[in-house]
């Protein structure tokens, strides 16, 4: 009895040239879906917005486009409400970003120690961030009510008169900033906490052996180790402050940002021009002004951080 081995199927091998070409092109094929989506939903709207900003376009007749060149941009420079919105964006951004990051840094420092229910506290930090901006703003609008708000009730208990949080310029900006601080402090605290846990424990042990207190450890070990993380949160918070829209829109329900535009931001001003007055060309110009403003602010933050790093490296 004899056995015959079955012949193995012959698999045609790829030519060397095709194989080399596939090895070079296959990585691009894997990342092509991302760049396709980015080009369709990111790059194209950006370029088209720049194109529309050079024309007079009305929402009722988007097909009728009249060339204006830089006319939409020069019209913004002569509009007092644009400068009011720009000033409000800056002031609300400052009074919301600075306390937010300082409080987040303090909370992260506390959560970095061994506390009871530490996991629960860390999870609770994300609850304001997970809350809908509409729900949070409507609740805070009730809290800051002039006649029946809880904030004015508490102020009355300590001897202060009622504050009109929706009409006063400073009061309304503080109220809007409070919503931003409440929503984003926990999010930034967890980012700082992750950065703190990446700092080597040997540095703290060496500082403790040298007699450094916890405050000195915080200023001389924690803060230098968190410098890249702090720069990241400053940049992200700056971008978010420039694009602030939901909180001022829902605080009173007006696209004008109050009776005298006292808390109207650039995002709300753009919405008012495009969907309130139907000037799509001017709204597109405002969008590009916001984009360029973000680039300038982010570049300034990066330049300051680079100069400081060079100065410390030269010591």
UniProtKB/TrEMBL annotation:
Lineage: Bacteria, Bacillati, Actinomycetota, Actinomycetes, Kitasatosporales
Domain ABC transmembrane type-1 residue range list: 86-299
Protein topology in the membrane: Multi-pass membrane protein
Top-rank taxon: Bacteria
Record protein name field: Sugar ABC transporter permease
Keywords associated with the record: Cell membrane, Membrane, Transmembrane, Transmembrane helix, Transport
Signal peptide: none
Family: Belongs to the binding-protein-dependent transport system permease family.
Organism: Streptomyces xantholiticus
InterPro entries: ABC_transporter_permease, MetI-like, MetI-like_sf
One Pfam short name: BPD_transp_1
PROSITE patterns in alphabetical order: ABC_TM1 (PS50928)
Location (main, coarse): membrane
Ranges that cross the membrane: 28-55, 90-111, 123-144, 285-305
Subcellular location: Cell membrane
């Amino acid at each position: 009895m004899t056995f015959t081995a079955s012949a193995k199927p012959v698999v045609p091998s790829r030519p060397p040239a095709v194989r080399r070409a596939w090895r070079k092109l296959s990585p691009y094929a894997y990342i092509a879906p991302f760049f396709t989506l980015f080009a369709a939903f990111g790059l194209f709207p950006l370029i088209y917005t720049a194109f529309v900003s050079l024309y007079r376009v009305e929402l009722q007749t988007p097909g009728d486009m009249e060339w204006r060149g830089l006319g939409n941009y020069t019209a913004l420079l002569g509009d007092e409400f644009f400068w009011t919105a720009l000033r409000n964006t800056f002031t609300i951004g400052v009074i919301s970003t600075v306390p937010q990051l300082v409080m987040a840094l303090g909370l992260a420092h506390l959560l970095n120690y061994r506390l009871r229910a530490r996991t629960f506290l860390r999870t609770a930090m994300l609850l304001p961030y997970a809350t809908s901006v509409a729900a949070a703003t409507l609740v805070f609008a009730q809290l800051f009510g002039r006649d029946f708000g809880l904030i004015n009730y508490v102020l009355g208990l300590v001897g202060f008169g009622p504050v009109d949080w929706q009409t006063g310029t400073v009061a309304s900006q503080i109220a809007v900033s409070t919503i931003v601080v409440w929503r984003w402090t926990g999010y930034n605290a967890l980012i700082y906490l992750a950065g703190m846990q990446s700092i080597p424990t040997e540095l703290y042990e060496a500082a403790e052996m040298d007699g450094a207190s916890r405050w000195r450890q915080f200023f001389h070990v924690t803060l230098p180790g968190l410098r890249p993380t702090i720069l990241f949160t400053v940049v992200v918070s700056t971008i978010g402050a420039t694009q602030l829209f939901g909180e001022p829109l829902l605080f009173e329900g007006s696209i004008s940002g109050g009776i005298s535009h006292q808390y109207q931001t650039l995002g709300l001003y753009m919405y008012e021009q495009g969907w309130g007055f139907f000037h799509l060309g001017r709204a597109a110009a405002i969008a590009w002004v916001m984009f360029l403003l973000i680039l300038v602010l982010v570049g300034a933050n990066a330049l300051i951080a680079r100069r400081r790093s060079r100065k410390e490296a030269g010591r």
